[in-house]
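Replying to the earlier thread about multi-chain prediction with a worked example.

Input:
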Amino acid sequence: MSLIKEVDYGTPAKNSEKTVTLTIDGKDVTVPEGTSVMRASMEAGIQVPKLCATDMVDAFGSCRLCLVEVEGRNGTPASCTTPASDGMVVRTQTDRLKKIRKGVMELYISDHPLDCLTCAANGDCELQDMAGAVGLRDVRYGYEGGNHVQVRQNGEENPRYMAKDETNPYFTYDPSKCIVCSRCVRACEEVQGTFALTIEGRGFESRVSPGMHENFMDSECVSCGACVQACPTATLQEKSVIEIGQPEHSVVTTCAYCGVGCSFKAEMRGEELVRMVPYKDGKANRGHSCVKGRFAYGYANHKDRILNPMIRESVDEPWQEVSWEEALRFTADKFKGIQAKYGKGALGGITSSRCTNEETFLVQKLIRAGFGNNNVDTCARVCHSPTGYGLKTTFGTSAGTQDFDSVEHTDVVILIGANPTDGHPVFASRLKKRLRQGAKLIVIDPRRIDLVRSPHIEAVAHLPLRPGTNVAVLTSLAHVIVTEGLFDEAFVRERCDWDEFQDWAAFVSDPKHSPEAIADMIGVDAETMRKAARSFATGGNGAIYYGLGVTEHSQGSTTVMAIANLAMATGNIGRPGVGVNPLRGQNNVQGSCDMGSFPHELPGYRHIQDSATRDIFEDIWGVKLDDEPGLRIPNMLDAAVDGTFKGIYIQGEDILQSDPDTKHVAAGLAAMECVVVHDLFLNETANYAHVFLPGSTFLEKDGTFTNAERRINRVRKVMTPMNGFADWEVTQNLARAMGLDWNYTHPSQVMAEIAATTPSFANVSYDLLEREGSVQWPCNAKAPTGTPVMHMDGFVRGKGKFVVTEYVATDERTGPRFPLLLTTGRILSQYNVGAQTRRTENSAWHKEDLLEIHPHDAEQRGIREGDWIRLASRSGETSLRATITDRVAPGVVYTTFHHPGTQANVITTDYTDWATNCPEYKVTAVQVSSSNGPTEWQVEYDRQAEQSRRIKPRVDAAE
Amino acid sequence: MSETTEDQNVRVAAICDQMAALEGPLLPILHEVQEEFGYIPDGALQTIAKKLNLSRAEVHGVASFYHDFREERAGKHVIKICRAEACQAMGADALGDQIRRHLKVDWSQTTADHKITLEPVFCLGLCACAPAAMVDGKLVGRVSADRILEKVGS
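Result:
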């Protein structure tokens, strides 16, 4: 194993069809037209010295090191800014060039500290490399003159010297080492799209400045790490490298946060993780990252992590640490006892969208083949289950239609119920890049998210709809498109069921669906609606991206189908640049759904009642499968309260914090006899658990994650599990303790079983993933290396199905007691229930959940910025601090749900999607009033949690 | 008389609205703001950034690039003395020293009574008449310290 060093071609690739051939140092090279001479050289294996160029950003031409000579041209042009042309004859090394380069380097080094031996970038410094490459041996200019290096000069303070900025928790900015190549500034602009950095001043006074001569923490910086990655010196340097030193080997793996599924190089020193660096060949992220994936991995070593199995008879006792054997035997005995006493159906389990495909497959296998029922569900129940249902109904597959590269071909985007700059930051950066190139954006969201307007991007329309009216808005957009004749008739006739289309068209054309008719109800004026509809229908390649603001409603599935209708009617399916794109929340929520985590579906979305499918599994597993769909999470909890459901195995999900109506979840868990929590930390659910099985992090296991674009990415083990076992081994050991004969020695064998049983994975193997890097399912005989864009030559289900989407208002209504609507979301630095990110330095950005409230509503209630407020709904109440902002409309309040102290789900109701039971997190009628601090429930909850987390260490028998 | 930051921002925003339609509006706006206030007031850059949908870093980068944009109000009179090559050859350094001594200020400073600001400038394009200066926006050639000081009544 060695350190993976990707080739830096100096300037970005061009994808022109036309090629040109030139000669560089006697070698002929053929490249796409528009390619720089620098890149062409690198492709020919000739490295031109460079400092300000790197292939993540456009050429800049400032360092004057990459000069070359071109036959027939005067002077020495910079190779980075000179496009290659046919017949060009280039020389990269001549006496004249050598002299110039040496002179340039000498000047650079004359204002750079000579502390290479003690510098954190030693061994990974391009300035050092270039000094070597040009043969610099001597610097004739001393430090007596002006410089940025010395703290004191001639006995006085050096006014040019600037101290290190260490305010960011993850990296430092040391201005004394800066060579002002502006790579960081350009990375922030071109790659991340935040524009937080600039070069201030001019000439010798030029300095990199975050914001307006601010420190990094106070500036607009979002800590994505692109600048650190771009910096050729130690000026911007990860604190972990400063502390540990340079890594010696690296392993490519996949981030375990959101559904973008970024590829990273885990750079290691032995088993110690030095840093995570985004991998340029990663097809989801193309070399970019966000603050979570890049930096927030410290939870893996956090003191709260539980490393020993623990058991207890009752949840008011302290935990007792025990051996793995004892914990598993205890669990198996309890589970068997429960089934003997209450019947087969009294057990169930929950698979994790944070774990690998292989682990998820094994958990559902344990439940179906071991427990002998189908009581398996997953957290997709509370997020994207409507996506699965809606897209399966309309298109025939339960997944998004595109890859992320598709956005580079998009002309107009509808973004509905998603906040990518916080929830899916790397995709947001790719989207912003396309928007800066001229694509148009329509935002449908109750809140003014950053993408509505932020530096260099502005939505053509923002539809700040009233929470809960998605279906009405989408049907109305369709009304405009159909009645104004903007639909794509040729596409619909060829690809969709024409009769169904006509029914649907007649439905949406009804004047009661016109923007004018519903304007008051949705809170968006008719002209904005019409403008948005016209832009989408006539703007070229139209893509729809959506998130949980679509699915987590009582009409979540209807909304997904309304989105599909809109895409089909405008002919925006089946080619790059278009499509319906659910932004999946978690790293492997797509995968966990694919792997048969739903009570009615076997892997590959095949119904449990389909006997042919059952036969396949029965053959391999050697057991008879129950053909009745099992219980969903809310049903399991209901059954527990009723006394018929008694034991549950929960892998990597904190249902007490993440599922709606916390008190009901607590009551359900409290009514069970054996709750097994398999997790990294004593999460909130573990307060009600009898067995705790320590989990492993994504760094400690092999496997695969499937991201939002159906891409199966490899997860690779870079260190030994601190808890002793990878999660798939724990599940296997539990299965064995229950008497099943499982003998997997590596997750690749599980993948082989998945491929053998699931047609859409038929061709997937670890060998293929090794060769291809990643593949998108379906991956089978028809598509041997996967399917980037689906429904290319027709819908999977045959003809695309238009579904009539009647708007039915949710039963959750505002009234005199609860006049405001609460909606919820995420913030960039924290992730979901925060079990991981709260245990990293990310909390520097977001210490607590805040309630956003409009100035008008705040004033009416006498609430000031930062006040404690009481947030009450029909379900319950909690307290948190308020922040006053006009991002939310009057009548709407908003909060995040990252901190267990807030308990936002005490507030949410038990209304759910009609088709899939996905909870209606996004609409709750609430009242806000002044408060002095936490509610009684919060205080009591904290006390109970503390009580429940007591641990008695393991006592050895000899003592 | 003291204007609040809020009032200033309103005026800056009005300037932005007036000029935002220009191609490359940032520099003309900065000039206009300086014209209006005599300097670029605190908070103006943030207002401009918001109005033009730029980041505050970008606006800071541009404003700090040009020495002409001031962060503080200048004196009643502004003296700019050329310190470029031709003027240096004709004694500009000595001229500068003389004036600095007389006014008791260094380069880029304003006198204590807030009457006169002294600034260096690098080439006014008046090399044939070196040493050259600019007093309150008017070019003067073949200057002496006395002539300059006389013009500003000091």
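The mean pLDDT of chain B is 92.

Feel free to reuse this layout for your own posts.
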